[in-house]
Amino acid sequence: MASKISKDHEKVAEQLHSLAIHLLRKLRREDDISGLNAPRLSALSVIVFRGPVTLGDLASAEQVRPPTMTRIVNALEEQGLVTREKTSGDARRTYLSATPAGKSLLLAGRERRVRALAGQIGKLSADRLAILQDAAEILRDVVSQV
Question: In sequence order, what are the residues at sequence separation of 6 or more whose Cβ sits closer than 8 angstroms to the Cβ of residue 93?
Answer without folding.
Answer: 54, 86, 87
